[in-house]
């Protein structure tokens, strides 16, 4: 169990001890921040419904007792065990030790200390008895002393099967208790009442004074037999020197007949307080051996059984003497003679008294005669049955029994009697008893599910007062009664009030605006201020890390219950926005993408070539036909994975052209045709000194590179052109001297070569 958390509130700590039915742990109330003791029903007993019932009865009994000398019960519950639910009780943690531990450590206590402790025990028992609860197992192990010396009685109302290494008598369901402290009626299996606790208290007081219980034996049955049959010793017989008043208190508490014991724990406490203050106790004093010897000595005799409360000195039986005789001196001889005659007189008197006692005893035994005069006992405070039994045992009759108004605590108990206590009356006199009938009860109506108006009418309709309390609830319980205290169908005093809790529904709040674009931490603080809870949902995005992108499942200004969870889609910054790469070289494009977080390189690009006829676009990213319409893929402004984006670029490459034949064309025709093919660097040159074939003057002889070659568009193409044909010879030309000349074509212009003219 250690380390477990019960009821989401109580942290179970180290084991403090074990009992017959349970084990007790130190615990911590996490809600209130205080130490507690947690009693848990043993797992092997938790399967038995009867033990569960007894354990729960202990919780109910103790929880109803609010007294400084009783260990308080704070809470109860159940926790899951391997074999089913295991009940537990959360109690006041007492920092101290039990009387059993104190006796083991110190031995018998001083009379004053013992009486002080037991007076507090009696106060606790009187409180429980007045609330209808009989402890049934008072013993040193069930009484604790705090470090400050305060008394705490525990284990109220529980019937144990095994306890503290001391066997418990369980021959019948009615015989429950530890043998050393068992009352005779418990040992006989008879019903018990408060006087059984008085008997056990007397046993504990005996043990505190002497160091041992009044009866011991080899077995629980042997001890129980002694409780029924044998008279206890006076404590002073076991430990000489103890006050006679304590003998009287203990022996009265240990009387075999419940009618002759203290009738209430309050009576026993009263005698203990009297003894502590030096007053005479009500219990009949026990005569010492010396006093018994004095009964046969000459001189006055004590009357046994003098009622306490007088001078404390029993009256003397002696002939009255004149005042002068009390102090008169007597002659030795006269005193001697008188002493002799005194012995003789006393002897005769004793013999006469003894004979008379025997005679009257035999008469009583033989004839069953009863005394003619009796003193009326006090029966006020007893139950009606106890009072009737007490009166009849004192040779009195029960007269009228009159029910009178009383508190609920006194219901069924004798409030007053007539004749009153100690009145001497004839035997057989009738005694009238006024018995409390308690307070007339009112039954609490069931208001569950009602509205406030309906519940108010129902409660006030039976004469009770309603106290309305608003509590948070599910929305379907709004403005309806959820719980009530006291519960429905309970009988309560007419002056009682009924507290009814009505549901208010769940508290609601609006989802804040402007969360998108903020960091997750900023958004979470805004939600917390609105009594909401932020939950992060990471999303692939090129936005900055942890920036809120959107709300999932809700929207700004939505009206939601307090404590609701708002899902925030948050960027994990795993992407980048694709830039425009046009006109960049592949190397430049790779650097641009690297700056955005791309994990690729120039070699990672998927490249497509685009023929260009502009030298500035060669090895640049350009647009083109087909898949190169954008010059790149993916297109600009689209999100891409930093780790795995696949990027295609279209790179400009020089257009390749085939040199077509232009032979026989004029230079102008040839140059134009080549330029129309896309060649950008076409020139012509004249073939000086080369005689053109017939009809080929000023015609293209060929190109360099030759026709049919495939070359770049910007490759220099030189058109070779024949010069004009020489004119036929004439007379004038024959007489004229030849002229020298040369020429060529540049940029398509043809220069005349050497020739002659007529």
From TrEMBL:
It comes from Nakamurella alba. It catalyses: L-seryl-[protein] + ATP = O-phospho-L-seryl-[protein] + ADP + H(+); L-threonyl-[protein] + ATP = O-phospho-L-threonyl-[protein] + ADP + H(+). NCBIfam families: PknB_PASTA_kin. Residues 301-332, 724-758 are annotated as: Disordered. One of its GO terms (molecular function) is ATP binding. PROSITE patterns: PASTA (PS51178), PROTEIN_KINASE_ATP (PS00107), PROTEIN_KINASE_DOM (PS50011), PROTEIN_KINASE_ST (PS00108). It comes from the Bacteria. Keywords: ATP-binding, Kinase, Membrane, Nucleotide-binding, Repeat, Serine/threonine-protein kinase, Transferase, Transmembrane, Transmembrane helix. InterPro entries: Kinase-like_dom_sf, PASTA_dom, Prot_kinase_dom, Protein_kinase_ATP_BS, Ser/Thr_kinase_AS. ATP binds at residue 39. The lineage of its organism: Bacteria, Bacillati, Actinomycetota, Actinomycetes, Nakamurellales. Residues 10-273 form the Protein kinase domain. GO terms for biological process: negative regulation of fatty acid biosynthetic process. Its EC number is 2.7.11.1. The keyword ATP-binding applies. This is non-specific serine/threonine protein kinase. It holds the Pfam family Pkinase. The chain crosses the membrane at residues 340-362. PANTHER family: MITOGEN-ACTIVATED PROTEIN KINASE KINASE KINASE 20-RELATED, SERINE_THREONINE-PROTEIN KINASE NEKL-3. Residues 370-437, 438-504, 652-723 form the PASTA domain.
């Amino acid at each position: 169990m250690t380390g477990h958390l019960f009821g989401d509130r109580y942290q179970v700590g180290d084991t403090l001890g074990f009992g017959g039915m349970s084990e007790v742990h130190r615990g911590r109330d996490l809600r209130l921040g205080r130490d507690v003791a947690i009693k848990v029903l043993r797992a092997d007993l938790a399967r038995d419904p009867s033990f569960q019932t007894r354990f729960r009865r202990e919780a109910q009994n103790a929880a109803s007792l609010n007294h400084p000398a009783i260990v308080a019960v704070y809470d109860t519950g159940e926790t899951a065990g391997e074999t089913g639910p295991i009940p537990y009780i959360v109690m006041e943690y007492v920092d101290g030790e039990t009387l059993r531990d104190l006796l083991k450590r110190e031995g018998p206590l001083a009379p004053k200390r013992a009486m002080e402790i037991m007076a507090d025990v009696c106060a606790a028992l009187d409180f429980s008895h007045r609330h209808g609860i009989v402890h049934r197992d008072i013993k040193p192990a069930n009484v604790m002393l705090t470090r400050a010396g305060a008394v705490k009685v525990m284990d109220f109302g529980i019937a144990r099967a095994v306890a503290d290494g001391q066997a418990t008598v369980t021959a019948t369901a009615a015989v429950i208790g530890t043998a050393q402290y068992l009352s005779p009626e418990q040992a006989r299996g008879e019903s018990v009442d408060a006087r059984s606790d008085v008997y056990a208290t007397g046993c504990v007081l005996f043990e505190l004074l002497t160091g041992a219980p009044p009866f011991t034996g080899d077995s629980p049955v042997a001890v129980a037999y002694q409780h029924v049959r044998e008279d206890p010793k006076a404590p002073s017989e076991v430990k000489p020197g103890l006050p006679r008043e304590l003998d009287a208190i203990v022996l009265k508490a240990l009387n075999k007949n419940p009618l002759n014991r203290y009738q209430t724990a309050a009576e026993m406490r009263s005698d203990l307080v009297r003894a502590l203050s030096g007053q005479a106790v009500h219990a009949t004093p026990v005569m010492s051996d010396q006093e018994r010897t004095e009964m046969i000595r000459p001189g006055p005799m004590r009357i046994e059984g003098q009622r306490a409360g007088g001078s404390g000195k029993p009256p003397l039986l002696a002939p009255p003497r004149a005042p002068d005789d009390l102090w008169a001196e007597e002659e030795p001889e006269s005193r001697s003679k008188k002493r002799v005659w005194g012995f003789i007189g006393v002897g005769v008197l004793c013999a006469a008294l003894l004979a008379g006692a025997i005679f009257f005893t035999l008469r009583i035994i033989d004839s069953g005669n009863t005394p003619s005069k009796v003193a009326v006992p006090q029966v006020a405070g007893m139950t009606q049955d106890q009072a009737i039994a007490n009166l009849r045992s004192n040779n009195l009759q029960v007269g009228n029994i009159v029910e009178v108004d009383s508190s609920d605590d006194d219901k069924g108990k004798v409030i007053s009697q007539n004749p009153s206590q100690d009145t001497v009356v004839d035997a057989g006199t009738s005694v009238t008893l006024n018995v409390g009938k308690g307070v007339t009860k009112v039954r609490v109506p069931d208001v569950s599910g009602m509205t406030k108006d309906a519940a108010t009418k129902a409660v006030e309709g039976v004469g009770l007062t309603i106290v309305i309390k608003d509590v948070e609830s599910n929305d379907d319980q709004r403005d309806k009664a959820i719980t009530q205290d006291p519960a429905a169908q309970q009988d309560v005093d007419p002056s009682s009030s009924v507290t009814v809790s009505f549901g208010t529904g769940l508290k609601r709040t609006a989802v804040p605006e402007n969360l998108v674009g903020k960091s997750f931490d900023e958004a979470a603080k805004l939600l917390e201020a609105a009594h909401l809870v932020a939950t992060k949902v990471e999303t692939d995005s090129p936005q900055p890390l942890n920036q809120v992108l959107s709300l999932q499942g809700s929207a700004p200004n939505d009206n939601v219950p307090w404590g609701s969870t708002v899902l925030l889609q948050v960027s994990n910054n795993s992407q980048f926005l694709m830039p425009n790469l046009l006109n960049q070289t592949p190397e430049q494009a790779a650097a641009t993408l690297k700056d955005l977080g791309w994990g690729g390189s120039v070699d990672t690009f998927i490249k497509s070539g685009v023929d260009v006829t502009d030298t500035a676009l060669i090895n640049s990213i350009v647009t083109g036909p087909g898949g190169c319409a954008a010059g790149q893929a993916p297109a600009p402004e689209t999100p891409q994975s930093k780790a795995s984006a696949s990027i295609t670029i279209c790179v400009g490459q020089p257009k390749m052209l085939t040199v077509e034949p232009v032979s026989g064309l004029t230079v102008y025709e040839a140059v134009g045709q080549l330029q129309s093919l896309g060649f950008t660097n076409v020139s012509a040159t004249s073939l000086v000194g080369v005689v053109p074939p017939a009809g080929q003057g000023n015609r293209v002889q060929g190109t360099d590179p030759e026709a049919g070659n495939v070359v770049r568009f910007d490759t220099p193409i030189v058109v070779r052109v024949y010069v004009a044909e020489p004119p036929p010879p004439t007379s004038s030309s024959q007489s004229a001297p030849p002229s020298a000349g040369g020429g060529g074509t540049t940029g398509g212009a043809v220069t005349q070569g050497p020739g002659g003219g007529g």
